[in-house]
Amino acid sequence: MKTGVDLKRSGAGTVTIRPGGPRPIAVFNGVGDILVENINFRAACDHDAVDVINCAGGIRFSSCHFYDSGLLAGVYVSGGTSSASFEKCSFHGNHEGLKVNNSTPTFNYGDRKNRVYSNTYGVYCRNQGIPYLSPNNNFSWPSTNSSYDIRATSSVTGDIHAEQNYWGDGGREPAVRHDHEDYTIITSNPLSSPATKIVVDPSPLARAQEKLFSGDRAGALADFKAIIAAPASQEEALAAVHGVMFASNQTPEEVEAALSYLEGIQKSHRGSEIGAAGLYVSISGLVSQGRPGEALSKIDQILRDHPTSLYVPYALLEKAFLLDYTYGDEQGAAEVLAQIAATYPDWELTPMVKTRLEAWRQARAGLPEEEESVVSLSSYPNPANPTTTICLGLPRTARVSVLIYNVLGQSVRTLLDDVVLGPGAHAIRWDGRDAAGQELASGIYVCTLKAGKLMRARGIVLLR
Length: 464
What we know:
28% of the residues lie in helices and 28% in strands. With 464 residues, it is of the alpha/beta class. Among the domains are: 13-187; 373-462, Immunoglobulin-like, CATH 2.60.40.4070. The strands form six sheets. A seven-stranded parallel beta sheet has the order 2-5-8-11-14-16-18, with no helix packed on it. The protein has a five-stranded parallel beta sheet with strand order 1-4-7-10-13, with no helix packed on it. It has a five-stranded parallel beta sheet with strand order 3-6-9-12-15, with no helix packed on it. A hairpin with a 2-residue loop joins strand 25 (443-451) and strand 26. Helix 4 packs antiparallel against helix 5. The longest helix has 17 residues, at 252-268. The radius of gyration is 23 Å and the shape is globular. The protein starts with 12 loop residues before the first strand and ends with a strand. Mean pLDDT is 76; it is low at 1-32, 192-201 and 367-373.
């Protein structure tokens, strides 16, 4: 398993997890006395910032920060990790700050407090995940968690101890929930005397996402539209614009209704980032409806009307994929990719762009065939509706990883993870679902193959 940092050492620094880059995954299986100290783990795409699996021998995180993992966890702890502990750490900007599965990690006590804030869930427990969240931890500074400070599902059959932590000014009651009727989350607030009861009210975006994940697409769609009409922040509005298409991708009629709604967003928010989001999200819907020409027009409108938008490099990449895979215009696609590489050298998907450009350069120059040129990656059918078979060819035995990314550079599915394959042809089936088994929206996705030091990428159009 590839790691982004040697977790057996201590040292200062920042580890940023990006598509195709290292992930600090700790699989220790009994190795003891590990100290991880003064490291910032930032997930720049939708990975958990850190996974700790089956570490029964003792691992301690001290003065570490786990953040920006999007819809996943800051730290995911699973299996045999009774001796995993955290002191003076922070968890923020994640869906779950700490996610616990069939394990009992601890927050250390005394002045070694941890901070858990600005997540959807501060701590999320399932499948006998019973952490000990001992005193003097902070669950509300500088901002609160948007849904619950601590949430346990009905698969947790035990009490969770979280006494004498800080939950907020004015005697704010901790926002906790245990779904099992026979057990509870035991809390107390050292600053409340007496405690003032505050009703837990998750943010509108968190409520809409919960509805979407639970299958209530109609309810989620209505909530997303309400957020766009009166957003609490631009970030919330942008997430809601994307949510509209995710909640409307089951039938052509739903997609058409979403496209019509997004057309209104583009007009009412012309020149703003919300308007750019409306244009960008429309691209995948138009492609799924068999209207690539209109998709290209939306891309050109982003480039013309929103030249400084964060969506510009993503729109350019969509354009390159459409030119190459839909229109067969390899030269036009190469020119767009060259523009991306020159304008956005530090963008997280630029290494993949450069790999594609180099392959085309060698083909045009008629260079002697190198080993990399006989590493192949393709898929059939493409477009996928929704299942496709991914075919790869290897010149020799190698450790292979195959991942699917969306056009925002977010990993949505791992098909192979550092698996040893022999030389020759291999086939993998992808059913158009993400890692959680949810159906992905119609649109363009990127399949990446990493075989040793060699890498290939291929666009896949997903239709439903």
